[in-house]
Amino acid sequence: MCSGEPGSGDVLDDVAALVAERNRIDARLARRVRAAELEQAPERDGLRSMASWLRGHCRLSAAEASRLVRTGRALEHLPALAEAHDAGLVSAEQVAVAARAVTPERLASAADQRVDLAVVDAVLTGVAIEQSHADLVAVVQHYCNALDPDGPEPDPTEGRSLTLSRHADGSLTIRGHLDAVGGERLQTALEAHVQADRPAGDERTRAQRLGDALVQVADNVLAAGSLPTLRGHKPQLAVVIDLDDLVDPHERPNAGRMGFGATISAARARWLACDGAVSRVVFGPDGAPLDLGREQRLMSRHLRKAAELRDGGCVFAGCGAPTWWCDVHHLVHWIDGGDTSLDNAALLCERHHTKVHHGFRVERQPDGRWRTHRPDGTEITTPAPLLAPAA
Known about the structure:
Low-confidence stretches: 294-299, 384-391
Pfam families: DUF222, HNH
Organism: Geodermatophilus arenarius
Order of helices and strands: HHHHHHHHEEHHEHEEHEEHEEHEEE
Oligomer: single chain
Family: Belongs to the Rv1128c/1148c/1588c/1702c/1945/3466 family.
Distance between the termini: 39 Å
Protein name: DUF222 domain-containing protein
């Protein structure tokens, strides 16, 4: 329905009402997240922080989980803005912008300069309700600059960020921000490859050439073997693919699984195998690796490789730690008669390895799924059940 037709006003009223309701729900959610953080509630499920709990149990992105936590903290220091948020007049995005003004460092600076935070709260609330989002951003930035006009040179690392968003096909979208010096370093490294790889008739766009250069930089660093080791192993590109698919000359999409979870075609796996080592791994009917191409019993490094192939990361409920953060845990401790075998092994990150040695328990089901239990015997499940409506 076009905006000029009869009845369109009702639709717009509905949109405005829904936005206000969403704001109110976001406000309640942020307050409950803060309450859970103050109670250290995530510890009940074996997790350290509300951000990690939101990622693991509610399937939120790292950025959204962190924003929720920051919003809950900010509302405590900005009661007028919090009231407007509760009323649906201010969005979660606006509160996230205002939260920059009440970080622990800026609160301390404001106290040293005897800034009346109530006045700042009132100004920010008025701008958020009555003016544009861009105006709110400008006012918050002005306030932050005023707190430290002649302060020391800021630490450039504080402003650096990089977000990798994986899509269903395994491709990545890269978003980030670098300080001037960090950006110059990256541009210099990329430009070296861009200028060195300009064959005649090259019709790639500038963006495509920079993308190729970034991949080449990563490829060179991996090949040099100078990166820090991950759990005793040099970082390397790994693909798991069935032997039949590897030797089949057809395309076979999604035949290979890579270390971060992306899938690639058999043709792409064969292309990678041209310049890489190929290891034979025999899987049993339950999907567990039985043999890694060695006649002797699986021990140490070989057992770890088998556990990585089977588990793919920390098996503790709600944890997404990758394999290189993990230890190989004995389900039945060796001192209690447990053997060093894949059936008696579980991949756990350091935090959750500690947890299972202090009352928590993980167990693998016959179908290959892992279950996690608290010290009181209750099971940790994900995603978490919906909270009951407030009375």
